[in-house]
Design goal:
about 260 residues; alpha/beta; TIM Barrel; eight-stranded parallel beta sheet; 11 helices; 8 strands; about 15% strand; binds 1,3-dihydroxyacetonephosphate
């Protein structure tokens, strides 16, 4: 049985106070979701300590894990403004879990900040070495889908960033398929379109890693909401969601997570 995961990518939204309130509201509604669903909240960096503390106080820090949205591709040193994977991983004080997940390769990082597969591989390696689980994002633009090159493009994103990893490293990878044309647009991939790509990603991973690919959670992201989550999550190779806009409302985020 693969892990079911619903992760909220808050992007650059909320103040620290609003973020703490949001996570409290999510914690209060946990009884609405199945126990085997792992929630992850990935707030902005400035919020991590406060949100971590709130999760501990609410007693929910095992079912709601903390994630970061990015990490540096360098270990440490003179890289002004950057935050290392190890800094994220050591946020907890040893008595709590602190940051457990990091999102790497989001299309907004690739597109706006020029992050190449080469840079992303450096990030993934450092994150795994620091003990973090990586939510690695892939996905095509509409023009690529229309030109019929989306399978090749996604295969390249998988091969260049995941294939250099060892089998043990791969076990801490979660893949998120986020078609760029579906992010923040209100246009969701149909469940058939999403399933087709998820199955393709799993098959691509299997080419190198064999049966381990069956254990890798593959999440769908892109205008996922309570009204379409159940159909998406019912697909064989869709193991949950990476949620943007709808993760900023506790009711919607919980509504999505209760759709399994
Ligand atoms: P939306 O859910 O707002 O479309 O964003 C998806 C996303 O980019 C999550 O990482």
């Amino acid at each position: 049985m693969r892990k079911k995961i619903v992760a909220g990518n808050w992007k650059m939204n909320t103040t620290v106070k609003e973020g703490v309130e949001l996570v409290k509201a999510i914690a209060q509604q946990l009884n609405r979701i199945p126990e085997d669903v792992q929630l992850v909240v990935a707030p902005p960096l400035t919020h991590l300590s406060s949100v971590n503390q709130t999760l501990i106080e609410s007693g929910c820090s095992s079912q709601i894990a903390l994630g970061a949205q990015n990490c540096a591709n360098k270990e440490k040193g003179a890289y002004t403004g950057e935050v290392s994977a190890n800094m994220l991983a050591t946020l907890g004080d040893g008595t709590n879990r602190g940051v457990e997940y990091v999102i790497i390769g989001h299309s907004e990082r690739r597109g706006y900040y020029g992050e190449t597969n080469e840079i992303l591989l450096e990030k993934v390696r450092l994150a795994l070495a620091a003990g973090l689980k990586v939510i690695y994002c892939v996905g095509e633009e509409l023009s690529q889908r229309e030109a019929g090159v989306h399978f090749d493009f996604i295969a390249e994103q998988i091969k260049e960033v995941l294939f250099p990893l060892s089998q043990d490293e791969l076990k801490n990878i979660i893949v998120a398929y986020e078609p760029i044309w579906a992010i923040g647009t209100g246009v969701t991939a149909t469940s058939a379109q999403a399933q087709e790509i998820h199955a393709f990603i799993r098959k691509t991973i299997a080419e190198k890693y064999g049966d381990i690919s069956e254990q890798i959670p593959i999440l769908y992201g892109g205008s996922c909401k309570p009204s379409n989550a159940a159909e998406l999550f019912a697909q064989k190779d869709i193991d949950g969601g990476l949620i943007g806009g709808a993760s900023l409302k506790a009711d919607d985020f919980i509504g999505i997570a209760s759709s399994f």
